[in-house]
Amino acid sequence: MIFDSNYDLKGESETLRLAENMANHLRPGMNLYLKGELGTGKTTFVRGILRGLGYQEKVKSPTYTLVETYNFEEFNICHFDLYRFKGVHEWDDAGFREYFNKASICLVEWPEKAGQVLPEPDISIELNHESFGRHIHLISYTSIGAKCLKAII
Ligand SMILES: Nc1ncnc2c1ncn2[C@@H]1O[C@H](COP(=O)(O)OP(=O)(O)O)[C@@H](O)[C@H]1O
Ligand SMILES: [Mg+2]
Fold it and tell me: Which atom of ligand 1 is closest in space to residue 109's alpha carbon?
């Protein structure tokens, strides 16, 4: 860990606001992993990032397709939900490795389901249920990830 930060998110709108803010500081090639039980707001956070980048349409949860790609001028966003990931053989068969490249930003829900095949994240986003809403812990593992977290205001 290089740098971390914590926020209390009182309602969905605060989750979206933090994610929209973070969207302005993302750079091509970054990998962000989203951890937390079902219903903690991982997909909501991805929706906030996409909104922050100007995407206005509906954001589908890639529950069965496992990945959904969004094209922007400077990079692609690849949104993974690996909850139904069956095993590492599927990783190469589906060509997922190619998604992790310099031109893309990968946002991965349930990274723990893919075991060791995933590269190290720049930022890990950990969400937890609280009485007031959600708690979020943002942890950076690279200098580019730390720079992003420090830029969030
Ligand atoms: N800070 C928050 N406080 C309360 N509810 C929230 C908060 N952030 C998101 N939610 C709600 O949590 C629910 C589940 O969100 P979702 O993003 O689908 O979770 P996950 O992808 O982790 O399963 C949604 O109804 C969403 O509006
Ligand atoms: Mg989800």
Answer: 21
> Which residues surround the ion ligand 2 when the cut-off is CB under 5 Å?
42-43
Domain boundaries, the chain: 3-109+140-151
Amino acid identity for residue 95 in this structure: G
Q: How far is the CA of 85 from the centre of ligand 2 (A)?
A: 13
Which CATH architecture is the domain 3-109+140-151 placed in? 3-Layer(aba) Sandwich (3.40)
Q: Is the CB of 9 under 6 A from ligand 1?
A: yes
Question: What is the pLDDT, as a whole number, of residue 88?
Answer: 82
Ligand 1 lined by 44 (C-beta under 6 Å): yes
Q: What is the pTM of this model?
A: 0.97
How is the beta sheet containing 3-9 ordered, strand by strand?
3-9, 133-140, 123-130, 31-35, 104-109, 76-81, 67-71
- What pLDDT, in 10s, does the model give residues 57-69? 999 999 888 999 9
